[in-house]
Design goal:
The chain is elongated and about 65 Å long. The protein folds into 2 domains: 82 residues, Kinase associated domain 1, KA1 (TATA-Binding Protein, 2-Layer Sandwich); 84 residues, Methane Monooxygenase Hydroxylase, Chain G, domain 1. Strands 1-5-4-3-2 form a 5-stranded antiparallel beta sheet, with helices on one face. By secondary structure, the chain is an alpha+beta fold. Strand 4 and strand 5 form a beta hairpin. The chain has 5 helices and 5 strands, in the order βαββββαααα.
Length: 169
């Protein structure tokens, strides 16, 4: 998981550390750019690494595969910068969808002009891969925005998990 931060790296990382502390996590700084994060009460630990750039850093988070799911969710919520403004459509997502739309029109033209099966199947494979990648981005955004909001509003975790499974499968 990668999280973009606004502002100078040192200030942005201090803000993240403060949010983690408020959420019940202990931050152990291994170097200027590498931290370990451990939940105080539950079984949950993660590692954070910030990019070396000074402005608008990107933090990479390695989340635990095992441990307390609620603590992991709390960690994710603490890492994300607070936002009160509604989210605008993601330009990257729209650009990807337009490209996929163009690929599909290309496949239609290939079929209409009688192109060989191998060429059409190759393009269909490319469209499928592009759709899969776009869906993964959308699911990631959904987890960050919608599911987090549901949990913040007090939704039951098992209900949220069932809803997510229904979306995915």
């Amino acid at each position: 998981m990668q999280i973009p931060l606004r502002g100078a790296r040192s200030e942005a990382l201090r803000a993240v550390a403060a949010r983690l502390d408020e959420a019940g996590f202990e931050v152990q700084q291994h170097s200027e750019l590498l931290w370990a994060v451990v939940a105080r009460d539950e079984q949950c630990e993660a590692f954070l690494r910030a990019e070396a750039t000074a402005e608008d850093p990107l933090v990479t988070v390695w989340l635990p595969d095992e441990g307390d799911a609620a603590a992991t969710e709390r960690l994710i919520c603490a890492l994300l910068p607070p936002t009160d403004e509604p989210q605008a459509p993601d330009e990257n997502m729209l650009r990807r969808l337009r490209r996929i739309e163009g690929q599909i029109r290309g496949v239609q033209r290939m079929v209409e002009t009688g192109r060989e099966c191998d060429a059409v199947l190759t393009q269909l494979s490319a469209v499928t891969a592009a759709l899969r990648q776009t869906a993964a981005l959308l699911v990631s955004a959904h987890l960050v925005q919608c599911i987090r909001a549901e949990i913040d509003l007090g939704s039951d975790l098992s209900t949220v998990n069932q809803r997510l499974l229904k979306i995915l499968f």
